[in-house]
Amino acid sequence: MKDTRTKLIQTAARLFAKHGFFGTSVRQISTAAKTNVAAVNYHFGDKRGLYLATIAHLVEQTKKMLTSGPNGVQVPQDIDRLSRAEALELFHKILDKMMDMSFSGKNVLLERIFGHAEMENSPQMVKILLGYVANYDGPFFRHLRHLTGLEAGSSELILLANAVFRQVHISDFNRFAILRSLKLKDYTPEVKQQIKDIVWHNTYAILKSYEKGTKKR
Predict the structure, then answer these.
(1) What gap in Å lies between CA 105 and CA 118, rounded to an integer?
(2) First to last CA, the chain
(3) CA gap 90, 77 in Å, rounded
């Protein structure tokens, strides 16, 4: 049986993905989870706390999907010991796996929550998300730090991660328009590979500009 905290997070994930932070009330979440408002306050403090806990939970799920299973990407703790070529190869594998997850819709709730956050774009929402990003240092960020030399939490690292990461999802966000243009009913394996190749080509070009000794930055 699921505990109350887990039920609240799973319910909140569905509702935040559908209605956004401001379009979802604590009462809606507690009612759908068959609990009470006091339980939200007890476990998370307030709606903001539940929202951040929900994002953290979904991010952790994404990390597990990224690293588990026979096709999971094994990320070493000592990334800094990898040569640049080894780090690039591993980063390529991470992007490929993330693309597969995006195509399969396995992290669609997280994508929709962040999509709503972008549309809401209020000072309150920016403050909430910046508070989350400032404490996030997953394998994606650690790889970028190693490959670019940028400092953890720096604005340039956050902007760079956003620019690279958005490529992973943009083709899926625009799936209908792309399929219509290509006169297809769904992505074929060949089209998926083309998208992967383009994402890596763009990402490699960006990372190349941060390589030591280059004059492109």
Answers:
(1) 20
(2) 54
(3) 13
